[in-house]
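fyi for ur records
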Amino acid sequence: METIQVVLSMALLRAADGAARRAKVNRSALVREALREHLKRLETRELEARDRAGYAEHPDVSAGAADWEQVAAWPER
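which gave:
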């Protein structure tokens, strides 16, 4: 592992220390996990954007999709 230096405001540092205590991990472990989760969310957003762009470029107009839309629609009252 590499050691890095990160500049935090005092309020953010106190909040991180409190969260680390509650999670029973050290500050470094808390920051590593938070960064992993953040990077995973970014990757998910990028994949979703790519999927949306693909579907917008090539919409599914097959009969099967139309059937599904009818089944999935809310029933009228």
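Residues 27-57 form the longest helix (31 residues). thats all i got for now
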